[in-house]
Amino acid sequence: MLRPFFYVAPRTKAELLGILRDEGPGSRLLAGGTDVLAELRVAGKAPKQVVDIKKVEAFQGIRFDPGEGLSIGPRVTCADVLASPLVHREYPLLATAAAKLGSPQLRNRATPIGNICTASPCADMAAAFLALGAWTEIESARGVRRVEVKDFFVGVKQTVVEPDEVVTRVVVPAEMAGAAGDMEKLKRIRGHDLALASVALVKHGGKLHVAIGSCAPTPVVLPVLPVDAPVDEVKAEALKVIRPIDDVRASAEYRTFMVQVFIERLMARVEPQ
Amino acid sequence: MRIRVRVNGRDYQQEAPDHWTLLRFLREGLGLTGTKEGCGAGECGACTIIMDGLTVNSCLVLAPEADGTVIETIEGEAVAGELSPLQRAFHKHHAVQCGFCTPAMILSIKAFLRTNPRPTVREIQEAIEGNFCRCTGYQQIIEAVQEVTGQREGQEELGHA
Ligand code: FES
Ligand code: FES
User: Fold this and answer.
1) Does the beta carbon of B17 sit less than 6 angstroms from any atom of ligand 2?
2) Helix-then-strand count for chain B, H and E
3) pLDDT (tens digit, 9 = 90+) per residue, A247-264?
């Protein structure tokens, strides 16, 4: 059962930023709610208010700007990503990752921006955004700043977003349009489950980008490598950035092993365009 | 907050505390207890309903978020005491054991068949991946789905019908 709180749903970004300026620390932002409501229930936490951002008109939509790239708003759900022909055509890895997240019911509500804001080490969308070199736009009454997704996570469930701020967009650069990529996700069952380990890999413009989930306090990305880097070198780089732990879902040894298996598979499977 | 919803074709207006989930509002506010609470945290899918055409875990939606939406629950399935074709197929194939997962299972399948009327077995499995059946009657559920889609012609029944 949820502990009592107030519900507010600002209609404009200005109104939202005002609420966060005045009452940021007591507020919990709500988009899809699939993480927030589960967390409020399980942790028995009670913010003073839950601020629903889904009524802010400016937060909707998936847009492509040939100069900037693909822009995803905070209201966009994983189901929206999956239903977007633009995403399938230009950034298919995002659709692959969205399809791997949760169940149909969860994808109908869960948002890619919420997924990175929860900052779980196993966030499925985070691996894809990292491999595609995405960045976020973060706003508050103080102004706007831009943070690369690779600098966005600070620790388990911790991000650079301050209590008076909101992530208003995530942008995948135009240079990554048409990038060939794929993702592997290890689960305990074939149905919906959190990742025990995941790898997203992109080959594009002569470069190789690899991101790994569930193997460190945050999702991590390897340094950019040449597209023809030998598989053993890619695996060696991966072992330098991961810091897996043993937990109820998998051992560190299993995670380490499977990350290498996934790198081998993806290196063989992904064909640069 | 005052919540206005249309549930199974009927309009409701009722006050609910801000922190109530849609699940609690349906059950305790409107008295529609067909929708079940299992985990209350988005794992089991027992609380699945259709909101504005899309399945959602009603334990992960706040009642105020549902204001102004159109909702379908299990109570809208049988009409005038007549089971729907999907319910009849569940009955015929013994897809209901304890029945706790059934209301949500029906709603998930209903929404799914609107977009995919002739699914493969794999597609059916994926469509219900967010609905746990702890009695593990998945095979019978899949048979029931194939029955309503007309994909069981010429196939032998398991003999439990
Ligand atoms: S009760 Fe909602 S998913 Fe389990
Ligand atoms: S019939 Fe018992 S949980 Fe599905």
Assistant:
1) no
2) 5, 5
3) 888 999 999 999 999 999
Here the tokens at position B7 are 């549930």
- CB-hemisphere CA count at 13 Å for B67? 18
B47 CA closest ligand 1 atom index: 2
Indicate which atom in ligand 2 lies nearest the CA of residue B135: 2
pLDDT tens digits along A102-161: 999 999 999 999 999 999 888 899 999 999 999 999 999 999 999 999 999 999 999 999
**Boundaries of CATH 3.10.20.30 in chain B?**
2-76
pTM over 0.90: yes
Please give the structure tokens belonging to residue A216: 């460190």
Distance (Å) from CA B43 to ligand 1 centroid: 6
Interface mutation target, options B55, B115, B134, chain A, most CBs of A under 10 Å: B55
Compare CB distances from A105 to B41, B57, B64 and report the shortest one's residue: B57
Residue A74, number of CB atoms within 10 A of its CB: 23
**Domains along the sequence of chain A with CATH:** 6-52 (3.30.43), 57-176 (3.30.465.10), 180-269 (3.30.390.50)
Going B90 to B93 to B96 to B101, the CA torsion angle's sign is negative
Q: How confident is residue B157, by pLDDT bands cut at 50, 70 and 90?
A: low
The region of weakest confidence among A187-191, A195-199, B95-99 is: A187-191
Answer yes or no: CATH 3.10.20.30 is held by domain B2-76: yes
**CATH number of B85-148: 1.20.1540.10, 3.40.50.1820, 1.10.150.120, 3.40.50.720?**
1.10.150.120
C-alpha to C-alpha distance for A217 and A272, rounded to whole angstroms: 30
Q: At what angle do helices B85-92 and B138-148 cross, to 10 degrees?
A: 140
pLDDT in tens, B112-135: 999 999 999 999 999 999 999 999
Distance CA B63, CA A96 (A): 32
User: Collapsing DSSP states into helix, strand and coil, what is residue A17?
Assistant: helix
Q: How far apart are the first and last CA of chain A?
A: 50
